[in-house]
Structures are given as structure tokens and as C-alpha cells.
Amino acid sequence: MFNKPEFTATNMAYVPYRDTEWGIRSVLDNFPEAPTLPALTRSMKHMLEGVPCLVFDREKRIVILDPSPGREEELIEFYDRYEAEDLDYFATTRDTAPWFYALLEKLKQKRPPELRWVGFQTAGPVLLADVIKQPDGNPSFNNETLRDILIKASSMKSRWLEKKIKQALPGVEVIAGLPETTLVNFTSAGGGGTREEIIDAINRGFEGLNCLTWIHCCANIDWTLLTDSRVDVINFDAYQHADKIALYHKEFKAFLKRGGMLAWGIVPVTDELIEKENVQGLVERLEQGIELLVSKGIDKELLTSSSWLMPCCDTVMMTPENSDRAFRMTKEISQIMRTKNGFVNS
User: Do β-strands 62-65 and 54-57 pair in parallel, antiparallel, or remain unpaired?
Assistant: First the structure.
């Protein structure tokens, strides 16, 4: 069993800062107990190191997985490295993610006394296999062989990240975040994959990890795709979808009883909305969502002790100043909710 968060505040990885020091300072000032390593980029390159047979079509702005006969050696090496559990082959390098190393080094130099968790994010296997295309332009998820490659790549990348954080910060709890922001496609007309294939991909993406597993999905989806998986934390957009979550109260009740946790994304992440909102209004909105679940028969003490607090998604599309504001509001809401529910503030 993992430690209960009790409304601990944390962040999504993608941020709008281009100044590494600014980004690190904002994350550590607002989330000293559970910082997620920030990504100061919109690129996916740091997620793709170790994935074989990639073709970057810059004209169409897509990434293709093309295991054609001329690239057999790449594919053989990939599977050899996977079978040998060569995690370093799947490393995120300083070239693609200097900010990852910068925050780890900062934490090693001066470890905040409150620090209990450190999170990372890399693409979940369903997301990866939706975004990366087959040579014919269809999602790789629809091809069993290509899907298997990307599930394995996602798993190995996550295992390397967990290992790297634990080596740098002994005793810290690691949060492995594998966002699955395209799950909404499953119920759309153009969606592919069966329910069983999606849940299997999610579970296999977390194979080999010995840490807290976390999935973010900001759209309204069939939430049983996550409650029926083996994930530990389900992170949703509580600003817009708390009422939709309540429709699955039976499934979430069982999820919480087995030790699952919810991450309430209550702070909006657009410049327009953040400038209209205030902390007290968001606290009231959050409490309405909590009471809605409690009214459906979910134990309030279990629910509140199993709840995280965060912005509803990445702040990457905001101005740096408004990202700072969203982070500060998240921290303040966390402190208010911890006090109201009898949890000790850090």
C-alpha cells in the first residue's frame, strides 16, 4: 500500500517556461512535497528514445513506425535490448530533456524537507500508439505487432525513469505518470481497438514498475477503461467533468476500496479561464464534486484521504505568468482542503 496523499498538490509535466530556472523554481515553490519533473518543450523526442524504425515526416507533421525489411537490424536490436532488460538503452538523454536532469540535480543539492514523492511523465502506450502512425497513416495501435513494440518501449522508458529518480533521491516515492489523453477516441466513430486490447495495453505499460502508477485523461471517457485497469491513480478534469465521474460511482467506489486514488484537476489551464477564477470559487466547485460522490455512497474519509490536488491539465498553452498563477492556486486549494479535512499541512 502506498502513502495516502490527503490533498497533496502536484503538477502535470508540460509547462510554458523556456527559462529552466524559472520552470524549476515555480514547480518546487508550489509543489515541494510532490513535484513532477517539468517538460520545457512541446516535442515528443524525449519520449521516443529507444523506439526503433521511426520516420519523422516533417511535411505532414506526423511520426511513422515503419519496420520495413531494410530496418530489420533496428527491430532485432530493440527486442534484444528489451529481453536483456537493458534499461539504459531506453534512457532519456540530457540532449532531449536537459530540464529533467536540472531538476534532479537541484533536488540532490538541496532536498526540500517536505519532499515525499517525485513524479515523471512519459507517453502511455495507448497514446503513443495512437499518435505514432503506420505507413498507411492509420494509428499503430490498430496493428498488433506495432502496438506491441510501442507498449514495450513505453514500459522500458518508464522503468528507466523510475530507476533514475530512485538512484538520485533514495527513499523518495516515485510517481509514474503515463497520460492517456486519446482514450476518448475509443468511443468515437473512428476509434480503434477493443476494450480488452486497451486495458491490456495500459496494464502492460506499467509492467516492471515498483512505484505509484498514474494515468491522466482530461476528456470525458468510459472511465471503466481505467477503473478496470491496474493503475493506482486516476487523474481527471474535475473542473469540467466531476458530474460525469459520479455516473461511475459504483466502479470508483470499488477502485478506492482496493487502494486506488483520485487526482482532482480543479484549476483551469487556459489564460481566459484562470483570469476569471479565484481560489474560494474553485474550493466550492471541488467540494461540490466530492459531495456528489459521497451522496452516491462513497465513504468521505476514504475519498478525501485518497485525493490529490492539481491543475486540470498541462499549463503548456498558458503564459508563464498564468502558469505560475495556476500553480499558486493549486497550492492554496491544497492547503485549504487539508485544513478543512483535518490533514496536517506540510
Answer: antiparallel
Distance (Å, whole) CA 320 – CA 123: 23
Q: What total of structural domains would you count in the chain?
A: 1
Kindly tell me the number of DSSP H helices and DSSP E strands found in the chain. 14, 9
Q: Is residue 220 part of a domain?
A: yes
Q: Is the pLDDT of residue 44 over 80?
A: yes
Cβ atoms 327, 31 nearer than 8 A: yes
Distance, in Å, from the CA atom of 48 to the CA atom of 8, rounded to the nearest integer, reads: 30
Please give the grid coordinates belonging to residue 298.
462513497
Residue 2: inside a domain: no
- Give the C-alpha separation, 66 to 9, whole Å: 41
Rounded Cα distance, 144 and 46, in Å: 24
- Read off the C-alpha cell for 188: 468515437
- The mean predicted confidence, pLDDT, of the chain is 95
What CATH number is given to the structural domain containing 169? 3.20.20.210
Positive or negative: CA dihedral 192, 195, 197, 203: positive
pLDDT confidence tier of residue 346, bands split at 50, 70 and 90: very low
| Beta-ladder partners of 202 | none
Residue type, 303: L
Is residue 282 very low, low, confident or very high in pLDDT (cuts 50, 70, 90)? very high
Which residues span the domain enclosing 285? 8-340
| Share of residues in the chain with pLDDT > 90 (%) | 91
